[in-house]
Structure formats: C-alpha cells, structure tokens
Write a structure and sequence with these properties.
- This is Transporter family-2 protein.
- It holds the Pfam family DMT_YdcZ.
- The chain is mostly helical.
- Among the domains are: about 35-75 and about 100-115, no CATH class; about 115-170, no CATH class.
- It has 7 helices and no strands.
- The longest helix is centred in the N-terminal third of the chain and has 32 residues, at about 15-50.
- It is globular.
Amino acid sequence: MTAQATAATPARPSLRGRALALVFVFMLIGGALRSVEAGCQNSLKLALHNVFLCGVISYAVALTGVGLIFAVTLALSKNRRWPSRADLKAMPRWAPFGGLTGGAAIFAMIAVASSVGVSTFNALIIAGQMLLATVMDHYGVMGFPRRRITVQRLAGCALIIVGSYLMAKY
C-alpha cells in the first residue's frame, strides 16, 4: 500500500468502557472456541486418517453454518445493504482470499496440533499472529489504521513468544 493510500485510510473511533469490555469477552470466547476447534479437527483426523478430507469437511460445515446465519439474518432484517457494482470494482482483488489463509491455518491445526498439544499450538499461532499484526498495524496495511510499533508493543510480542516457549517446554 502506498503512503498516499495509507494516509487516506479513515480513522476509526475507539471503543470505550462497556463496549470495549464486551468486545474483549467476545474475543476471549472466540479464542477459547479455537481450542474446541482443534479438538474437533483432531478427532476428525483420527477418525478419517486424511488431512485434506478433514479440511474439506470442516469448510463444508462452516459454509453451511454461515449460510444458515446469512439466511436467518436476511429473513429478520430488511435493512441489509447489498454491494453495488462500484463497490465490487473498488474492492481490492486480494480481499476475497482471506478464507485461503484460514484454510492454511486449518490444515496446520489438523496436521500438527496433536503433535505439540493444543495449548502449544495455540500459543505459537498467537505469537505468529501478533508478530505479523504488529507490522501490519505499523504500516496501516489492508485498510487498518496505523498504530506505530513501540517498545511496549514489542515487549508484548516478546512475552507472547516466551509464553509460547513455556507452553511447549512444560
């Protein structure tokens, strides 16, 4: 992303108080469900003995669930805005491919989580996420507002890496 495009990224309002607390709770629940997901994926792998079939089944179930949520949302809300042709043309070409990165994470989970344990797997996934996210925030890429790398943020990343090591070792 160019400096001009980065500067054009609109500032987003910061969450405060209860709204921020609710977002944190939601994220903690989502994170906890990743451990349940790892257990489901591992059980699927043990039953089917095929990593790729596990991935296909996992995504088929996810697509079905999202489709049902989408259908219920459409049925209950009349004010959903649909993208215009101009919206679709303005969308970055790479934007729809986020699911592929999620697919890579799913295959990693299926293939290796049982080898290192779900706690170590999740700790290392989080460490990798934090390192790249810190760089992405610093440069304000992919539509995110810029958040400079600071000593405190780097210390947070280092603590996550140390925590990952401790999870793996003990």
